[in-house]
Write the structure tokens for this entry.
Amino acid sequence: MIQVKGYAAQTPTSDLAPWSFERREVSPHDVQFDIMYCGVCHSDLHQIRNDWFEGIFPMVPGHEIVGRVKKVGSNVKKFKVGDLAAVGCQVDSCRECENCKDGLENYCLNGNSQTYNGLEQDKKTPTYGGYSNTIVVHEHFVLHVNEKLNLPAVAPLLCAGITTWSPLRHWKVGKGHKLAVLGLGGLGHMGVKFGVAFGAEVTVLSTSAKKEADAKKLGAHHFVVTTDKEQVKKARGSFDFILDTVSAEHDLVFYLNMLKTNGVHICVGAPSKPYSLSPFPLIVGRKSVVGSGNGGIPETQEMLDFCAEHNIVSDIEMIDIKNIHNAYERMLKGDVRYRFVIDMATL
Ligand code: NAP
Ligand code: ZN
Ligand code: ZN
């Protein structure tokens, strides 16, 4: 077994602290890479606190992982030692079901292996994430990263990037569309960058008036402060799509009013409590509420290649792993500009 240093929560109420654990030896189809940077996703906080479901503890969070390959198995074709490598939200799946065959491992019908707080395909070995110094993953789930991109700023593409890319591509959002990105945090700021890159007219809907200048710098064309009644009134009936990245409870109907007829509200944010929704705001104007969960391996590679071609990365604030709880506190207050990334050299 490989000895690994990481940061773990021992229980849903304890803080993250140093923890040593083991990963499997590199088998013929595995890639081992040393983790250099790991992004901090709001899902990490939801999961260490059991916001969604009873988690598997000790829990080592982190699913926005980049580093350099240290060792490859004898049958590995995609990678060699020294290559850049990245891993996102899944480390395995059945690779046989209809969805896996379609490149939608994120929707594996037999249950995929989430990068942490999940189980390997043997359905009994817990998975541990990227707040650690090294990882071993089947080569199918390891992505290539272009050397020309700023590596720490690539890390958030593995979740915040693909989670916003995938629905925008699936619903073919682009030229001629008015897209609203709801919530300007980690996911939201990538939604703005991709929406703009795909040619949509992008509006940020935010509770934080002070983020307006940043939104414009990210490429957004308009900014609506959702606590300002006049601005909200003007936005009524104006969007084809709303990409909802909000992490906390909020009133969907308030936002559905801002959609045009046939408009689509895309939920990627995952608050812990169910939404309350009457059919009437959907019936009047034939509106849809849909959801999307990160992305499959082929589309993740496509996104990373697009980012290399168009020079797109995240706007990040690098942190020492010792300050992870301070980062979580700021994230809860909406004070993220626009993704914290852990420098794993501080581990
Ligand atoms: P984040 O960086 O904390 O951003 C969330 C943003 O939502 C905040 O910055 C804030 O933006 C806004 N917000 C927070 N509370 C709000 C409230 N009560 N009402 C309205 N807006 C509010 O979080 P993140 O990492 O982007 O993740 C966002 C959510 O997506 C989380 O729930 C996460 O678990 C989920 N997620 C889902 C997937 C998936 O596969 N579907 C993948 C990754 C993450 P403003 O200051 O602009 O208002
Ligand atoms: Zn995430
Ligand atoms: Zn499958």
In short: The chain has a mean pLDDT of 98. The chain has two domains: 2-159+296-302+314-346, 161-291.
